[in-house]
Each structure stands twice: as C-alpha cells, then as structure tokens.
Design a protein that fits this description.
Length: 318
C-alpha cells in the first residue's frame, strides 16, 4: 500500500459524504494504491451509519468505530495502527481541510522529507477565539521545542509510516507529532494549504482546549529534553535548594557564633531547613526517575536511538 488517509471524526454526519466524494475524486487521479481510514471517535449522531453505508460500496474505505469518545489523539493513533500505507496523511472531517492539497503534500514528502505539515496561511476561523490563541500557541511551541512551524494545529499533514508507527501519543499530543518525532532526527517541512469555513456541524475546539495544550506542551518539553535523564532536571533544582539552604545556615551559624544572637526564633532558620529538605527530595525524585527510565528500557528492550536506514544489513549483522 502506497498511501493511507487517516481521518478522525466526531459527529460529522453533515460532512462525511461530501468529504468522501472529494477524497475519491482526488485519489482517482493518482496511480498510487491507497486506502481511506475514517475513525469514528464515539459519535452520537448518524455518522457511523453513513460510514457503514459508504464502506459497502467503496472497498478502499476502512471504518474504525471506537467504543466511546477517547479524543482526537487516540482516534488518530488508532488510525496509524491500522494504516497499511507507506505514507500516511491526516486531515479533519469538517471539510475545512482541502483534499486537493494531498498531491502538494505528497510532492513535498517525495523530496526526501519525513513529515510535511500544512500551514493554513489564510485561515477561515474567528480571530479572537481561534486564530489568536493558535498564533500564540504556535509561537510558544516553536520556542520551547525548537521545531519552528507556523501552524502546529493544522491536522492536514503527511508522515512516513515508519515515523508515526514508532510514536506513542497521549493527551493532545497529536498536534505536537512533528516536535515529538524531532527527537528521532526526522526532516520536517511545511507547505501552505487551503482552508475553508465550516458549513455543517459544530466545532469541537474552544478556548478550554488551550489549557490542556499548554499542559501537554510542558510534558512534551520534559519528554524531549529530560525523559532519558531525569536526574539532570531534578538534580538542578535539588542543587539549587541545597546550595541556598547551605548559605542561609552558614550565615545563621556565623551570627550565632560571632554575635551570640539567638536564631531559634528566626523564620530564616525554618526557610533554610525547608530548602535542605526540598533539595534532598528533588535528588530522590531524580534517582527514582533514573531507575524507572532504566527499567523501562531494560524490560521493553526499547533502544535509545532511532535507525533510519541500514546499508548491506547482512554484513552489518556479521
């Protein structure tokens, strides 16, 4: 299989048939062997019935129905697991992404890139509730992760299968796949794509999701930088607390010995003791984290590297 189109959806009964027709028109002009995977993430409307009917007449359409609403990241991950194509393209089911951009993504990824991300340069969404929070989130994500993209939130992306099938996604991590995969040393590109206003159904996005995205961004930063060396982050905090506490205790000892002043009733003494205790706790967290990381790699046999290609594998194994 050359190409898999993965589409997570939730209550999109008004858009499914039109989206399927648009995809069929685009893919019919391609010589690639392809499949369409639509993942019903616990819809409560007639979405699944429509999908079942379409699948009876289109052998290229594969429908996955989740038992309940697990979220877009879980739905997308399910699509990745069932995809058989060497290239996987994701897009939303609300008709705001344009299937006509699929050849553009394919042309770019065929230049040697591992991930090609769409950029909704002329985004058709309300400014203050959608575009402005997205702009701020994209800027913050680029700074924190070091992977500079204009539009992390655009679902329309193309991936090489060997990249996404090695990822484990949680929370709202689907939007951060380029940043998560960057630790594998992948090549990432971005291309402008079309964006249309929603005409049917209701948006599943809102300002409340921004908070979850920020929390996942903090988790992502830790995973990218310190997931295999937790002692380096907890140890820094531990050293800082122990150092400040030591200086304060030294000062209080000097005051007590040299000036014969009482220090038992000083809040500074309690602060110094608290800092020493916190410093020790940070060190213990770091050590426990190191033990957990090593246990994870040892038990699962998970490598600490990612191989892109092996030349003359028979000789390499000798």
């Amino acid at each position: 299989m050359d190409l898999s189109i993965v589409i997570p959806l939730l209550n999109e009964e008004g858009n499914i048939e039109a989206l399927h027709q648009q995809l069929t028109d685009v893919l019919s002009d391609s010589s690639l062997s392809c499949e369409i995977i639509m993942v019903d993430d616990g819809s409560t409307d007639n979405s699944f019935e429509i999908l079942r009917r379409l699948a009876q007449t289109d052998v290229k359409l594969k429908v996955i129905r989740l038992r309940r609403n697990f979220g877009q990241t879980a739905a997308m991950s399910a699509g990745f697991d069932y995809a058989e194509g060497q290239i996987i393209i994701t897009l939303d089911a609300d008709l705001q992404n344009d299937p006509k951009d699929i050849p553009v993504l394919l042309a770019k990824i065929n230049e040697g890139y591992d991930i090609v991300s769409g950029w909704r340069k002329d985004r058709q969404d309300p400014f203050w509730t959608r575009r402005f929070p997205s702009l701020a989130a994209n800027r913050l994500t680029s700074i924190i992760t070091g992977v500079h993209l204009h539009d992390y939130g655009c679902t329309l992306k193309a991936y090489r299968a060997e990249v996404v099938k090695n990822l484990r996604l949680y929370g709202e991590m689907h939007r951060f796949i380029p940043a998560v995969a960057s630790g594998m040393g992948v090549r990432i590109a971005e291309v402008p794509v079309n964006h249309h206003p929603r005409t049917h159904g209701n948006s599943k996005y809102g300002l409340s999701r921004t908070i979850r995205v920020v929390l996942d961004l903090i988790t992502l930063k830790f995973q990218l930088s310190y997931s295999t060396r937790p002692m380096q982050v907890f140890g820094i905090f531990g050293l800082f607390c122990l150092g400040v506490g030591f200086v304060l205790l030294g000062y209080l000892g000097w005051v007590r010995i040299i000036f014969q002043e009482a220090i038992g009733n000083r809040p500074l003494l309690w602060l110094a003791v608290l800092l020493e205790i916190i410093g020790v706790q940070f060190f213990m967290l770091g050590l426990l984290g190191e033990m957990m990381v090593r246990t994870q790699f040892d038990i699962k046999g998970k490598p600490i590297y990612s191989v892109k290609e092996v030349v003359n594998e028979r000789l390499d194994k000798r």
